[in-house]
């Protein structure tokens, strides 16, 4: 069921639009950071077509008017509530008039962000995408409001979102170490399922005119291989599979196979963007810090660092392959177009993420999510100011120094 606020958009999306055309949005008025629903409702209920009003337009790269548009592919990491940082990054990128997206590869919380982003872009342009992302994270916060994993009033006053001194988290952490989700959650209840279904109409993501090439990663429990869900396979179950932490949720079964969180084998996977997208630029939004200044000492800190290293390992391996191919291209050893040069970009805040404990990944307090969103927006703002002109011409991250 398509939410009512997007119904006026459907006739304006024709099947003649190429699914490989990158999407860009030009806004002729500032967007309110409060994301009030009145803004989106006023935008889409206008009696004039969006192409005439210019409020939010999707423009193919082949159009002369978009000759100066920079196109990137997005790679979105997972990390629980820390995925609200990615929400903020996307929120700022969607404001950029001359930035377009061709493909998105995502995992876990990144997969939820990617589904909301693609759905909103398809039906409401950039402002529709911002609204959809807002609805997603507001829904997550509301679904968790009765959870015992809450910040105390003192924590909120001090803006300490770590849950480090939460008795409820200590009990929960112990329980997940001695019991499986098949034991403490035999009914397999997952509040994220309802949030996703209320926020995204997955039929829209499978339509032929969906303007974004979407790829979601999950880990096959039986084979240990990465599974990429694309186009006609994108469902709420696929997103839940990508975000299935095995100590929290029962494995998600799709087509007779069981899946866990995609972060174990692709956080996120870059190869779908390299193989299936024309544009060479990949912008990675990091949620898991690659580096930590101190050696972990406590059991919780050690387990958290093990998870971070594990969830970054597949990305590091792909970066080594990209570095190898890049050197071959730069050295002139590739004489045909069989391999292309890839430009890597990254938005991250390792300092912020390193100061947050593992418990904060389960903290869906609205104040914390807004804090993370604003941090993501700030980092995206800085990245755009420093690197926008370099898109399409060079990598803006030193692959050797950061990943190898």
Describe the protein.
By secondary structure, the protein is of the alpha/beta class. It contains 15 helices and nine strands. It has helices spanning 37-44, 50-53, 83-93, 109-143, 153-158, 167-178, 181-184, 191-199, 202-205, 236-242, 271-276, 299-330, 350-354, 366-387, 399-403; strands spanning 23-24, 70-76, 99-107, 213-220, 226-230, 252-254, 257-261, 281-285, 343-347. β2 (70-76), α3 and β3 form a beta-alpha-beta unit. α3 crosses α4, α3 packs across α14 and α4 (109-143) packs across α8. The longest helix is centred in the first third of the chain and has 35 residues, at 109-143. It is globular, with a radius of gyration of 21 Å. It starts with 22 loop residues before the first strand and ends with a helix. Mean pLDDT is 83; it is low at 4-20 and 27-66.
What are the main properties of this structure?
single chain, 404 residues, alpha/beta, nine-stranded mixed sheet, 9 strands, 42% helix
Blueprint of the fold:
Layout: E1 23-24, H1 37-44, H2 50-53, E2 70-76, H3 83-93, E3 99-107, H4 109-143, H5 153-158, H6 167-178, H7 181-184, H8 191-199, H9 202-205, E4 213-220, E5 226-230, H10 236-242, E6 252-254, E7 257-261, H11 271-276, E8 281-285, H12 299-330, E9 343-347, H13 350-354, H14 366-387, H15 399-403
Parallel strand pairs: 2-3, 2-8, 3-4, 8-9
Antiparallel strand pairs: 1-3, 4-5, 4-7, 6-7
